[in-house]
Amino acid sequence: MAATLTPSDPGRTLGVWEADDVGVGEIGSAMARLRHQHRAAAVQTSVLTLVVVGAPAAIEGAAATVRDLGDQHPSRTLLIGIDPDDDAEAGLDARASLELVVREGASVCYDEVRLRVRGRARYHLDSVVEPFTLPDVPVVVWLPDDLPSPGDPLLPTVDRVVVDSRAVAQERPDTLARVAALGRRLPVADLSWYRLATWRSMLAGVFEGPAHRAFAAGVDEVVVRGNHGPRTLLAGWLLRRLGLEPEQVEVGPAAHVSVHLSATAGGRRATFEVARRSDERCVEAIIAVEGAPPVVQRVQMRRRWPALALASALTTMGADRSYAEALDGSMALVGR
Amino acid sequence: MLPANPLLEPATERVAPPAVLVVFGASGDLTSRKLVPALEQLGLRRLLPNGFSVVGVARTELSDAEFLARMREGAAEVGASPEESRHLWESLAGGFRYVTGEYGDPDTFLRLRKVLEELDHERGTGGNRLYYLATPPATFATIVDSLAQADLNRSPSPESFARVVVEKPFGRDGRSAQALDETVHAAFDESQVYRIDHYLGKETVQNLLALRFANAIFEPIWNRRYVDHVQVTVAEALGVGHRGSFYEQAGALRDIVQNHVLQVLALTLMEPPASFEADAIRDEKVKALRAVDVYAPHQVGAQAVRAQYDAGWVQGSEVGAYRDEEGVNPHSERETYVAMRLEVDNWRWAGVPIYVRTGKRLPKRVTEVAMEFSAVPHLPFAASQAEGLDPAALVLRIQPDEGITLRFGAKVPGQAFRVRSVSMDFSYGAAFLEETPEAYERLLLDALVGDPTLFIRTDEVAQAWRICDPVLGAWDGGDVPLARYDAGSWGPWEAEALLAREGRRWRRP
Q1: Exposed, middle or buried by CB within 10 Å (0-12, 13-18, 19+), for B187?
Q2: Confidence label for A5 from pLDDT (cuts 50, 70 and 90)
């Protein structure tokens, strides 16, 4: 076992402790020592424990996203990389660090623990996670590249699961059905759903106001295009929210998401379109009502979207009824 | 009534309906520095609707394109990067119009009416108008009257709205505030009037309601039995800057106490509302303000201190006296600092002094409400063991670092038993993943969606003046001498004496 305790850049990482083949208790003691050494870490404001579980490569990407949250990061983060070799001797390698972000004179301190789980320990992650959870605040587990199996021992210990249906939909056609089943056990946040927030709020926006509201009840045709998972989710949501029949909703592949609605109200026809036209990060809404000039709105998609989608997923607690509706609608479309 | 929008998330999402924001005084500072950056942020957060439009009305001659360019420049100085906001501005561009004219000229309003009708047709704004009076109060009567003459004060259909946003000051005293209200009410119902105090748009001010009414542990001690006294501080490090001539007319009591301080105080002292409906909250605020005791003229000198800053040093810079500021009378008697002792006559607060202070050129910019709790009935330690121990306090920091601090006694580590005060900090910005919206952003959206909770109702204004009028009367009558303080200090010794005579002292925020 080799352990080091080094103070680092005071603007970012306050201190780091690393060791191979260690026990959970040792890691906990090292973290307490790190906090003790750094006065800036004396007060900790936390709203959750975030556990990220995945293949080592996926964990690297997830770690970058978590860091992007920067000063909006009030959690303890546990990043668990699973060594795929079942025959390796069971054990843990750990790196614990204390991170500090300073904004306008106020500092936010959070701790990050990276674990590499070897051998059969991967089947008992609950025993690894439990000692690290902060008291009284929710535990959220995020699987960046997979869906949990129904028997996953982590599930009973967590309050909420974050998945990304788009990341797994390509390889697993039954992704949305599995997420729906998971959602009946505990609250699920799907990053793919949060990524669609721009389209959802722009679609809601096209029916705001007296000039366009009546058309919401008169939608007779919907065409949704996009990647495999998101297009089905969005189409399922529109199916249920607009009270349509599956035959009225067409779903097809495209590199970027676009939605086209046709509607009638008061004897006039109108089309409503919300689309990302190219790789440029801009979503466009066009309202074209018979007899009136078209109204165009363009919205720049926010930067840092992976972090923002994660932030949205972590901010919302409890079950998301709209998402459940969207999943239900998606099932109806997939099953036709 | 419009049917519900099936795609809107009812609990969480608030998207403004397509509407036209009509800004009077559009060529002024407030529009380019506050309103337009707030609109830009709302747009970037996708909270502005399709077709949203802005019509500027002012005397300065500008074309639509010049108005748009000026607003965009103003937003670029304080707002998002051009790259981030390019598409937003492209979609808003078609909705920016400008009407040049005098506020009293019917022709100005006929042209405004025509522009609004064009926008309804071209941008689907459906008759929704939000009039924003970003002009000096002296012009309000003329503008409101002209709007009524042009029949623009009523929405054209039952599904649409016409609302008017009024900026402070809401009058110079109770009487002028009432006159202003009568003017506004001649054209608009109270339900159409949104009086804006940007303090109420601050997250921590709203958090006061969450702290008090979402936690069972604070409410039982939020009363005369446990609270020794309350301190409200609104301190600014800046002087009057280029607002000298305005400040000569206003002073700290009108500029800060009548609105910001009393609004924060009302939220701190009010009873729990039965619901979170706008009027349920505002009813309780009015009740709290109504319970504030009013001074008799001869009491003002003993209960309220007014002062003005002399030259001094603030945050490492040498600064001049108030009387040397631009636009200020060299013999000015205008107060730049106020400290007051208030009492609230109701069951919850009877006998608990409320000390408020505000001033310019104080050591730092800070706004906070401190609940100073009573000392324990008996301290079981020797005096030497409890040196440095103050009674517990709960401090709500409103700006700049929004949060909550709890001060309590703890044992000093070591062999001896000594107790000292320590503070536990909760930083609001550090606890949540959401980005905090700016106050104007929040309030503009509220006005567009029609939520008046964070706007001030006419009876709140009247109650605030009821408290301030006797003080102003005594001051204007020359009954109370003007104290002086050095810039960079926490105020005059008279303010210290206000608390010292009751065995208390001001906190150092």
Answers
A1: buried
A2: very low
Residue that is written with structure tokens 């639509």 in the block: B64
The structure tokens listed for B12 are 């969480």
Instruction: Yes or no: say if B154 and B162 are a contact pair by the CB < 8 Å rule.
Output: yes
Q: Do A201 and B15 touch (CB under 8 A)?
A: yes
Tokens for A23, please give them. Answer: 């026990």
Secondary structure class of A160 (helix, strand, coil): strand
Residues of A within 8 A of B7 (CB-CB) are 200, 203-204, 207, 216, 238, 241-242
Q: Using CA atoms, how far apart are residues B425 and B471, in angstroms rounded to an integer?
A: 36
The pair phi, psi for residue A217, each rounded to 5°, is -85, -5
CA dist list (Å): B303 to B232, B265, B355, B493: 15, 17, 10, 14
ipTM of this model?
0.79
Enzyme catalytic residues of B = 260
Task: Tell me whether residues A201 and B46 touch, CB distance under 8 A.
Answer: yes
Q: Which of B269, B203, B257 is nearest to B401 (CA)?
A: B203
CA atoms of B332 and B475, how far apart (whole Å): 13
> Tens of pLDDT along A7-23?
333 347 888 999 999 98
Mean pLDDT lowest among A304-313, B331-340, B474-483 = A304-313
When scoring A300, A320, A321 by the number of chain B Cβ atoms within 10 A, the one with the most, hence best to mutate, is: A300
pLDDT tens digits, residue range A123-132? 889 888 988 8
* Separation between Cα atoms, residue B288 and residue B345, nearest integer Å: 9
pTM comes to 0.81
Q: Indicate which of A66, A207, A320 best probes the interface with B, i.e. most B CBs within 10 Å of its own CB.
A: A207
Pairing of strands A160-163, A188-190: parallel
